[in-house]
Write a structure and sequence with these properties.
18 strands; alpha+beta; globular; 501 residues; six-stranded antiparallel beta sheet; Pdz3 Domain; six-stranded mixed beta sheet
């Protein structure tokens, strides 16, 4: 009995270790998975060359092959795949760990930087009050490495459209500690060099690492929570949007999310009634200014974005000018992430193929396009109560997907002034609509991307750069002073601008 128990404990111990992210992984397995990953991109991802040339893509895969020769662990390989995933430039890209690895990370009792941080006026500052590092302290180095070099190494875990960086910074506001662990491994402690507020003196202090759960406990208490918590909250129906009148000339329409279901859902119908009521009142009251705040809007469902835009447009419009995919039949179905046995998988995938062929019937130069019958190309008209006054659009790095499509269309209006920060989602287009998931055979890493390459129905503007998010007319970020008092710098700036005008 004693021998059996010892053997069982040893087996459990080995099994647990075999699920850990720091476990060894052979270069042979890495090369196999790298090739599968590459083929899924080439054959199924229409966004592969959206922002990168073929030569650039070839070059980074050569880098990956060289990197594998110097790698020995599962974590090494995960980091290589994350770098490739990020390089493509799509906020809908993702590479995720299998649940067993992720669960082990969550259970780790040490190795994590203790405090959340935030990018404020070009510096990374402590976003936590009551810890060993003072609130607002400017980070200079961690374990002897300049903080800007640290941050650049962590960007690969956050996917944004094109060459956008603001979205990566907002992601680090929540996940800095986890990303640090993934790139640098578990650390017993952190030797931190920093400056206190209003001081030029550099201080070096050693912090003990904390558990994964302790870091996220601190994150949930982040100092900027009064302004930032909406981005990390599962909103109920009544928290997603609202309207208030500032004075006899100005109203504020806030839309935190377009996740309200499609035109058949009760939540969409409630939202449609809200818009009709609000814009009827705006027209009746003859408001001259409308602040449209979408700073926390990470996307949602059609047609909520388009319906909202119909109340803010003076032109006929459509969801996009062009949409295409790169295949006629779903490739590499052996690795396609679907809960169907591999023997009968071709039958089920065949149905998906027929649907895609109906949606994208036009072939041109190896691409498959939607035609004029597509709902996405339906020409829509402004609502009869559409606002005709001055629009002030507030944007932030959190604006993505359907949120950024909507924001781009509003930003393209002649009567719109855009204020805030560059969005994570692109102005001219993105890859979206239909997510595809593949599982790499050896590592079981799940990798996903959206297959539809979209050109949005927006005008060319001199301040909008291809491969970037929506660039505001007035770049306004939170000031250090307002961070310390949890004041909304962007709304304050907008109201002051209104007074001047």
């Amino acid at each position: 009995m004693k021998t059996l128990s010892t053997t069982l404990l040893l087996f459990i111990s080995l099994f647990t270790f075999a699920q850990h992210i720091d476990e060894p992984m052979s270069s042979k397995k890495m090369k196999k998975d790298l090739e599968v990953f590459k083929q899924t991109r080439i054959k199924a991802n229409s966004g592969l060359y959206k922002y990168r040339t073929e030569a650039q893509i070839d070059s980074i895969y050569q880098w990956a092959e060289t990197e594998i020769e110097q790698s020995s662990t599962y974590l090494d390989f995960y980091n290589i795949i994350c770098q490739l995933t990020d390089f493509e430039g799509s906020l809908h890209n993702d590479t995720s760990l299998p649940d067993k690895y992720f669960d082990n990370l969550k259970a780790e009792s040490s190795g994590y930087f203790p405090y959340p941080i935030k990018w404020i006026e070009g510096k990374w500052r402590i976003n936590f009050e009551g810890g060993e590092l003072p609130l607002g302290a400017e980070l200079l180095e961690i374990n002897g490495e300049p903080i800007l070099d640290v941050i650049e190494n962590l960007y690969k875990y956050s996917n944004t459209d094109g060459d956008n960086l603001t979205g990566k910074r907002i992601d680090l506001r929540a996940y800095f500690s986890e990303y640090y662990r993934l790139h640098y491994g578990q650390k017993k402690d952190f030797r931190v060099t920093f400056k206190r507020l209003n001081s030029n003196s550099e201080i070096t202090k050693t912090l003990e690492s904390v558990s994964n759960s302790e870091y996220y406990k601190n994150f949930r208490a982040l100092y900027s929570k009064p302004l930032d918590q909406v981005y990390y909250t599962n909103l109920n129906e009544h928290q997603k949007y609202g309207f208030k009148q500032v004075d006899s000339f100005t109203g504020v329409l806030t839309i935190h999310s377009f996740s309200m279901g499609n035109e058949n859902s009760d939540e969409h119908k409630t939202y449609a009634a809200f818009l009709d009521s609000i814009f009827t009142k705006v027209k009746k009251d003859k408001l001259k200014n409308l602040i449209v705040d979408v700073r926390q809007n990470g996307g949602g469902d059609d047609p909520n974005d388009l319906l909202t835009y119909s109340y803010l447009s003076q032109r006929n419009f459509q969801e996009n000018k062009e949409a295409w995919i790169s295949f006629r039949k779903i490739p590499l179905i052996r690795y396609y992430d679907i809960w169907i046995p591999k023997l009968i998988r071709p039958l089920v995938v065949g149905g998906h193929n027929r649907q895609l062929q109906e949606i994208f019937p036009l072939e041109k130069d190896g691409k498959y396009y939607q035609d004029e019958t597509s709902k996405d190309h339906q020409v829509r008209q402004p609502n009869e109560n559409a606002f005709t006054g001055q629009i002030y659009l507030l944007t932030s790095p959190a604006v993505a997907s359907a949120g950024s499509l909507f924001a781009a269309m509003v930003a393209g209006n002649e009567n719109t002034i855009t204020l805030g920060e560059e969005t994570i989602g692109g102005y001219y287009g993105h890859n979206g609509h239909t997510p595809f998931d593949y599982v790499l055979p050896k590592s079981k890493l799940a990798t996903s991307f959206s297959i539809v390459n979209l050109e949005q129905d927006v005008p060319e503007k001199s301040n909008q750069i291809y491969g970037r998010g929506i660039i505001p007319d007035h770049k306004v970020s939170q000031s250090l002073e307002d961070f310390l008092t949890n004041e909304d710098t962007q709304m304050k700036f907008t109201l002051e601008l209104l007074e001047k005008r």
